[in-house]
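Revision sheet: structure tokens.
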Amino acid sequence: MSQIQSLTPSEIVSELDKYIVGQADAKRSVAIALRNRWRRQQVPSPLREEIAPKNIIMIGPTGVGKTEIARRLATLAQSPFFKVEASKFTEVGYVGRDVESMIRDLVEIAVNMVKKEEKERIEGLAAANAEERILDILLPPQSSPLSSTSFSSGGNTDYLLPSDVANSDLPSEMEKKEDSTREKFRDMLRSGKLDEREVELDLEDARSTPMVEIMGTTSGMEDMQSNLQDAFSKIFPKNKKKRKIKIPEAMEALTQEEMERLVDMDKVIKEALQRTEQSGIVFLDEIDKVASRSSGGHGPEVSREGVQRDLLPIVEGSTVTTKYGMVKTDHILFIASGAFHVSKPSDLIPELQGRFPIRVELTSLGKEEFIRILTEPESALVKQYIAMMATEGVELSFAADAIEELAAIAVEVNENTEEIGARRLHTVMERMLDELSFDANSRGGERFVVTADYVKKQLQDVVEDRDLSQFVL
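Predicted:
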């Protein structure tokens, strides 16, 4: 396991606090779950294999940080992470995706993650190889001195017999001269003096592989299409196309080509499968949408319960076939979330409830939390808008009372219309800065201070008209 995954629960919570405001209970639960993975790795076999992950259900309204907690946790742990809405799956035989497809997608993410890491590791070597290839194009290696030796008796040229060539210093002098010229070209290449020069390269044509498209929406079709596409890409040779491009672009293209050549895909796939099985995280959003409501009805309820029964073996632990190999789901961490407005966790089938032993409730956000969300996190909304306006030369700043007013309006609109949590801040901010965003390109060099009065002026009419605010905010 990586060093990041050996963080203590308190350290994990501190890291999550940088991006997510409040929700201490949820942060605490996921921190313990992540630490338990590290603890499990320290337990000797065979007991290690018996320790199952403690899956989590997060319960709370939309926009309170459920998805963000899971996403930040995966980034922190350097784990393959896949988010999917449970409502996308349906019972086998109905229209929808196969539940096993989420594990295949998780493996694909893990392969790309490991491949990217491997490319970063060998980037220096690939760049050096690309540089040598550019130099070979600019300065082709000269032929052997023996083949180019003149035996003419005219002028000042002396006869040079093969025995003399063998004993002379000519080859070494030629090599030194060639090396010297090559090094001069290398210095010019690195200093950018050759950037405007064009070279001709044989590059792979991306269109050389035929596209495969399967019509239909039944489960498994998407995976079949992907597998067929991969098979055709191996069967059909990749066509090369001659292109004349400038040296910087050629250097980048050749570096990418060298990285693809140097990456050991067998090693990458082996590591990706291991990482998926031991540290993969699947975030099942909208789990409440597949909970059978206790109404005694029929129809759609059959499909909902069918999805739960299809999910059960994946969450309990089974083996899924992917194009990279078999993947065991026994130790993948599943984090489910849902608002549970209409249904409740107890409406899930008992077997599935048993596989999510940890339940944590996330609280609704109020004015104080909104003020903190606007200003505290490293990627706070206020910081984002200041940075975006700076690109137009506008120095944007927010007065403290303006941030309070924005938070108060967001809370009021949430109460009067639909509760969407912190996502309301995005719509309120965008609406409030609508005029400035439109005219920013013509206001370069200005300093613009957002005050509480400006916020009220921009938003008050919309907020007071409850019917309009339902559509605009």
